[in-house]
Structures are given as structure tokens and as C-alpha cells.
Design a protein that fits this description.
The protein is mostly helical. It has helices spanning about 1-15, 20-50, 55-85, 90-100, 100-115. It is globular and about 50 Å long.
Length: about 120
């Protein structure tokens, strides 16, 4: 899960140049990041269900997990396309100022970095 959060932040950080407005792209990126964050608990739950229980339950959970992962990969690709349009630092700063989910993920990432396990 920690890697998924970091990957999401990395996608939010990459960028290059613009044809649409940064504001609308940032809004779309924020929505995609929020949706990805909302799916994380489901991914964890389905991952556990696909590992434990009877074979039929495992298969069903694995199918659902595959669908959710596929959706997340599609969203990550969409984010990457948006992010390539802008300067990395400018877009990241814009997202931090205008997207509550990005702010929360950054705080969580910093909390993980400050945890005793990482010192």
C-alpha cells in the first residue's frame, strides 16, 4: 500500500507542457488520485480474501481484485498523460495548493518517512 501511495504521488509529480489548462488538468488529476486512494482499502481487502478461505471465495476475490487493479492502472496511465504536459515542480505545487487528496497523501508519506522504522 505504501508503494501504491508513492507511485500515485510520483505520477502526480511528472510533467512537461500544456494544450489544455493546468486548472482543468489538475482537477482531473485530483479526481483520479482521490479515486485511486478510495480504492486502496478495497484492494487490501480483496488481496486478503484472495489469499485466505475456500477456493471458490479466493477465485471470486481474485477476479474482483484483477478488475480493480485494471481500473487503477488505467487511471495511472491517464494521470501520466496529464502530468507529461507540465513542468514537474509547477504542476506538483499547483496540485499541493489545490487538491486536498494530494495534501493528505503527502502528509501520510511524510509520516511514513518519519516513523521509527525508517530511522
Amino acid at each position: 500500500m505504501k508503494k501504491l501511495i508513492l507511485i500515485t504521488l510520483i505520477f502526480a509529480a511528472f510533467s512537461s507542457c500544456s494544450t489544455s489548462t493546468m486548472e482543468s488538468d489538475a482537477q482531473k488529476a485530483c479526481e483520479l488520485i482521490a479515486e485511486t486512494a478510495e480504492l486502496m482499502p478495497e484492494v487490501i481487502q480483496l488481496g486478503l480474501k484472495s489469499s485466505f478461505g475456500d477456493e471458490e471465495s479466493k477465485k471470486e476475490a481474485y477476479k474482483k481484485l484483477s478488475k480493480v487493479k485494471s481500473k487503477m492502472e488505467s487511471m495511472a496511465l491517464e494521470l501520466a498523460i496529464i502530468n507529461k504536459k507540465y513542468n514537474e515542480h509547477e504542476f506538483q505545487a499547483y496540485l499541493l495548493d489545490n487538491c486536498e487528496t494530494v495534501k493528505n497523501l503527502k502528509e501520510m508519506g511524510e509520516a511514513f518517512s518519519d516513523s521509527p522504522e525508517n530511522n
